[in-house]
Amino acid sequence: MTEAIKGFTNKLGLPRLIIGTFFLLLFIMAIILKLPVNTLMSDTIRRFGMYGVLVLAMVPAIQCGTGPNFALPLGIVCGLVGGLISIEIGLIGALGFVGAIMISLPFAILAGWSYGILLNKIKGSEMLVATYTGFSVVFFMSIMWIFLPFKHPEMIWPIGDGLRVTIALDSTFGQILNNLWKFPIGGVEIPTGLLLFFLLSCLCVWLFTRSKLGIAMKAAGDNPKFALVSGINVDQCRIVGTILSTVLGAIGILVYAQSYGFIQLYQAPLMMAFPAVAAILIGGASASKAKISHVIIGVFLFQGLLTVALPVANEIVSEGNLSEVLRMIVQNGIILYALTKVGGGE
Amino acid sequence: MSNTNHVEVLEKTKESEAISLKMKSFFIDHSVTILFIIICLIGVKISKLPLFFITSELLTRISRNSFLVLSLIIPVLAGMGLNFGITIGAMAGQIAIIAVTHWGITGIQGFLLCGLLSVPIAMIFGYLIGTLLNKTKGQEMITSMIAGFFANGIYQFIFLFAVGSIIPMKDPIMMLSSGIGIRNTVDLSKNVGIKYALDNLKKVPAIKVLLIALVATIIIYSGIRFYKIKNSKKKEKFITGQYLSTMIGCFVGILICSIFMFHEGIPNNLKMITKIKLPIATCLVIAGLCLFNVMIVKTKLGQDFRTVGQDNHIAKISGINVNKIRIIAITLSTLLAAWGQLIFLQNIGTLNTYGSHVQIATFSIAALLIGGASVSRATIGQAILGTILFHTLFIVSPMAGKNLFGDAQIGEFFRAFVAYGVIGLSLGLHAWRKRVGVKSKLE
Amino acid sequence: MQEKYVLQMKNIEKDYFGNKVLKSVSLSVKPGEIHALLGENGAGKSTLMNILFGMPVIHSTGGFDGEVFIDAKKVDVKSPKEAMKIGIGMVHQEFMLVPGFNLTENIKLNREITKKNLLSKISGNSLNFLDRKKMDKDARKALDTLEIGLDEWAKVAGLPVGYMQFVEIAREIDKSNVKLLVFDEPTAVLTESEADNLMKSMKKIAASGIAILFITHRLDEVIKAADNVTVLRDGELVATRKKEDTNVLDLAELMVGRKIKVTNKLEDDKKNRKDHESILSIKNFRVNMPGEAVKGIELEVKKGEILGIGGLAGQGKVGIANGIMGIYESTGEVRLRGENLKLNNTREALKSGLAFVSEDRRGVGLLLDSSIEENIVVTTMQIKNEFLNRFGFFDQIDSKSIRSHGLKMIKDLDIRCTGPTQLTRRLSGGNQQKVCIARALTLEPDVLFVSEPTRGIDIGAKKLVLDLLVKLNKELGMTIVMTSSELAELRAVCDRIAIISEGKVEGILEPSARDRDFGLMMAGEYRKMYSKEAL
Fold first, then answer.
1. What is this model's ipTM?
2. Same domain for C151 and C226?
3. Which of B128, B134, B146, B393 to mutate to test the interface with A (most CBs of A within 10 A)?
4. Membrane spanning segments where (chain A) (predicted)?
5. Is residue B318 a contact partner of residue C96, using CB atoms and an 8 Å limit?
């Protein structure tokens, strides 16, 4: 009997089990507290699609062997630049969104490529250097947001220099995916476009992992020595993985922004890598292994947990933001757990 | 005749080549520090802040921050890298402050009680971090950083939600109106807290302290050299280049100090500098920590730190309990960070319950690295120099940004970029050197 | 008890999971004696030493049988620390020195002399100050005993390798109670003159009454330095000789011996191959592989043969295949079917018809968390673009052909598994090896390099893997270059065997050649001997 339980937990993974149970408990509490369950469901689904692509960006990074991409802000600022230029040149609606992605691509590819070269020089310390690369890029771009010559009246401060902290997307591509083929089921809103876009992204990444290059990349990440002996250029594979992750980060932030309705600049991207890393780890990935299923399960559990926790926590303690504290504990706890599994250099 | 001349010239060029090579390696080794000296000088110039303001502000900040920076040295010695976990030590200090302020014990008694109370708390935290880091060898720095974030979550949970509900506490001044949770800011000023408890014990004009310190340096340094040479088998000259330059530096310093103090013809804005006062008690505590750091290296424990730091495996083979030594190193660092936070906060005067500790690790580590330290090597001198440079940048960058670009924010972003950038850069450089080292070892 | 012994080991037996590695081995060492322990890799030398030092690996695998006496007192050493306490010291093969420390600090590592101070009186000994003066004095004394002119305050980092060994020795003799010193292949990394110095020092130490147990496979050193020799082979005590009663030839024969009968290779079959053209010719080939450096070899591989590459560990035999495949940096000339092979380029080597089964099966040979079929096809997919479906610019793996090829290989090579999707991590060693071979075969190579094919797999599986190689050779006419530490298996399957010593080919022998010749070649004495005879 205990053996069976052990096997079960092993298969499911302890963190997934704990978070899953916790999520369920909160959900039951929400029902007991008579909170509007359909709104909670809608929110969960919306946030699932909103964060999905950002979490998906972790997959190529982990698969190519550079570990969870803590330098996600690098991709994010590329996406932001794409979004801003798209607005600046007056693209709106679907064209604005597609344009934003298209414009951000060259930036993201270039940034990912140079960052990949950097990562190849510091093998073994990727995670820490990535974190600080991400941090410093955010502050570097904060200076840039003031200097860059954007002129569009909706983006710049009416008085003074530089771009606003938050830029509303109502008139451009806000909610463009969320509203696409949206339909309600029993009070639960299904943002079809958003979900389709996320699942399509997943499909693309999945197809890539089954291509020749994808297989080479996975081998390079799994066992660099094996890859070397099989005539695979390990460094190149790592660069490809990093570029892909950066590009997905750029697309991810645009999906996030259109769903949120605002582009957030300055320090907003600073900590964005951590929830994404936590989500994929909750989904069952480790610092060296990740699959698409981990993304889908992880982002659903983590975002669902946070969505439901907020109103439930507010019912129990009206003061302060318990849900934010919960996010910090869960998010960093799971990363710590994953780090202890990396195994040291003993 | 011409021949000897030729030889002489040749020797001279050789000599100058050697010197230029030395200079080159000096500049490469200290490139970060030199770069920052230049940036700081430019910043000082652009900001147009009066020298008096910069100096006095700088002295305050040095006395406020250097203890925290110094608390980073021991883990570096033990090969655990830069301890991003000093944030957790800072939390231990803050827990002690909240308790002591709640009990209403003020002034120096309050401060000492805080110091005492933070010992067991910091030791427990340190033990926990150490255990965690032993499970994540090779990834200590990222682990200690994430551990800091994690602990921050728990800290917030305790002081926002648990206090007043699970932990019984009643204090209308410190707590939120609902009776649950501590306010965002806790006033530590004179009548209610520990503000300036240490700083105001005794204040002495900085210039006098400097003068005394310079004289003391001359006497003590000469004494040490004399003693060393007498006892050493190695044949050395009493007067080496280093000795000579130190002595000259000290005498020049004394001369400048004397001019400032006794000469009447100095313009008023410079004369102001003599009015700057130094919190002597705080300085003594910091000096005490420096002394402690020096002494610990000379003990058996210090030797164990060094052995573990140099090579885990060999240390283990030779019978050292590596894990225990690492836990001790981290615990010491955590405890020192707790005390450092106490010194920091008694100077600031208000406790920002949920913010004071957050940036401590980043800023302290950036300061240490700017001073020229690396992940595997850090000295007291680097810590102090780094603190001076980093905080000069801190003081001048908003004004410099405003004067240059008409926006103070740019200066603030710039210094944050610099702090994160310099950490990223040195970590990257360290990792790169390590890899190159491994490669060349194989060849 | 007519004679006094420092160390006596009596009837030591040890098995790892039913696999006997030591069979009734006895060993006696007198004070002041230099006793050599001679044997091939895997003869049981290190296991015997692990028992002596009470290494955890012994206790965690069920202990051992037999008795150990130190100074005629029966002891039961449970940990290396205890061994140290009763006076047994070890000079390690790889240096246990801290490069950033000076000689004194290294000699006194974790045995620092301390003195009390105010603080330590309260808080305990770990805050005692180091007494550097006393430490320096002790270190000086130890260094003087070895007659080393190094300064005790010099850092280890800049020392030549030869001196590092002496620092290690100085550390051991500085331990006040040391009675027995074990030298584990101390000359492996030394130059000849350094090795001579070491011998002198050893004699000096022995003269002071400390016994020395000297593990080696260099025969001339045994004759030069040792008083007595114990030879182990396959976990058995072959002989214990006095130096006066033996010579290099005798020892060579004792060390190798014949273990299994040369198998079913038909003599005429071999004759035929003799005239075959050479498929791979290697000239002045050097490989920069740490620990297995190749220092200029000349070798011809003939089409359709199985060429064995043998030799002791660390002599460079493993480096040859690794170098040709471009895994470690190499220089020289390699011609495949008469054409120059681009060196240092794995892709090129694979493309031109070479394949490699690595000696490090789990570390290099397999993707442990991928399925069997994926492991089998991945290299071929990358090199030859097979097992792929193309859609314009994009390609996708062809699951169908991968599955059918995987099943075919599983059947052909008789890989015991639950199915082609089983993870290779869960397979046994022998089956993992078969997957590695299957991966190499999928490339359809002209020349197959196989390194240590039977390392770490059980006896039954060993035979299967060797039979498989012979079958491939016979049925497909595949040229095979097999590198192995086990001379017996080389002699069982190969047509010719090249023995590598000190990074060079010492000689090439028929499998049926005399034991003595193999022994001399492995010990690197064959040429010396041969040239002497010629004179």
1. 0.85
2. no
3. B146
4. 12-33, 45-62, 69-87, 93-115, 127-148, 190-208, 239-257, 263-283, 295-313
5. yes
In a domain, C168, yes or no: yes
Q: What confidence score (pLDDT) does residue B441 get? A: 45
| Domain co-membership, C54 together with C135 | no
Does C294 reside within a domain? yes
Of A124 and C241, the one with more pLDDT: C241
CB C130 to CB B320 under 8 A? no
Determine whether the interchain pair A231/C346 forms a contact, defined as Cβ–Cβ distance below 8 Å: yes
Q: Are residues C244 and C280 in the same domain?
A: no
CA of C186 vs chain B CAs: smallest distance (Å): 18
SS3 B267: coil
How far is the C-alpha of A69 from the C-alpha of A55, rounded, in Å?
10
Buried b (16+ CB within 10 A) or exposed e, B384-414: bbbbbbbbbbbbbbbbbbbbebebebbbbbb
Q: Quote the pLDDT of residue A128.
A: 84
Q: Are residues C299 and C335 in the same domain?
A: yes
Give the number of beta-carbon pairs within 8 Å between B and C. 53
Tokens of B395: 């003081």
Residues C203 and C184 in one domain: yes
pLDDT recorded at residue C1: 44
Determine whether the interchain pair A336/B413 forms a contact, defined as Cβ–Cβ distance below 8 Å.
Answer: no
Query: What pLDDT is attached to residue B403?
Result: 83
What is the residue whose two structure tokens read 């050292």?
A: B320
**Record: contact A333-B150, CB cut-off 8 A:** yes
Which chain B residues are closer than 8 Å to C120 by Cβ? Answer: 299
User: Strand, coil or helix: what is C240?
Assistant: strand
Please list, in sequence order, all residues whose beta carbon lies within 8 angstroms of the beta carbon of residue C328, skipping any fewer than 6 positions away: C287, C288, C289, C319, C322
Q: Min CA distance, B440 vs chain C (Å)?
A: 11
Chains that touch B (3 or more CB pairs under 8 A): A, C
- Domain boundary among the residues C201, C227, C256 is at C256
Residues C106 and C92 reside in one and the same domain: no
Domain count, chain C: 3
Q: What amino acid is encoded at B294 in this protein? A: V
Beta bridge partners of A170: none
For chain C, list the contacting chains (3+ Cβ pairs, <8 Å): A, B
Domain boundaries, chain B: 28-442
Domain boundaries, chain A: 38-270
Q: How far is CA B331 from the centre of its chain?
A: 17
The percent of residues above 70 in pLDDT, for chain A, comes to 94
Structural domain range at position C133: 102-155
**Same domain membership, residue C430 and residue C312:** yes
Write out the two tokens for C28. 């006696």
Per-residue model confidence as pLDDT tens digits over B192-213? 677 777 777 777 777 777 888 8
Do residue A230 and residue C379 have CB atoms under 8 angstroms apart? yes
3-state secondary structure of B115: helix
C395-454 residues touching A, CB cutoff 8 A = 395-397
Tell me if B319 and C101 make a contact (CB, 8 A cut-off). Answer: no
* Average pLDDT for chain C: 82
- What residues in C contact A289, CB-CB < 8 Å? 369
Question: Tokens for C491?
Answer: 């002699």
Specify if C261 maps to a domain.
no
The CATH number of whichever domain residue C89 belongs to comes to 3.40.50.300
Q: Is C28 on the interface with A (CB under 8 A)?
A: no
Query: What pLDDT score does B7 carry?
Result: 56
Residues in chain B within 8 Å Cβ distance of C115? none
**Same domain flag for C382 and C482:** yes
- pLDDT of A206 reads 92
For the CA atoms of chain C, what is the radius of gyration? 27
Does the pLDDT of residue A125 top 60, yes or no?
yes
pLDDT above 90 (res B272):
no
Confidence of residue C149 (pLDDT cuts 50, 70, 90): confident
Measured between beta carbons, the chain A residues lying within 8 angstroms of B152 are 328
Q: Has this prediction a pTM greater than 0.80?
A: yes
In this prediction, residues C238-260 reach a mean pLDDT of: 77
- Is the minimum CB–CB distance between A207 and chain C shorter than 8 Å? yes
> Would you say residue C2 lies in a domain?
no
Per-residue pLDDT at B335 exceeds 80:
yes
CB contact under 8 A, C130 and B303: yes
Q: What is the pLDDT of residue B443?
A: 39
**In chain A, which residues have their Cβ closer than 8 Å to the Cβ of C368?**
222-223
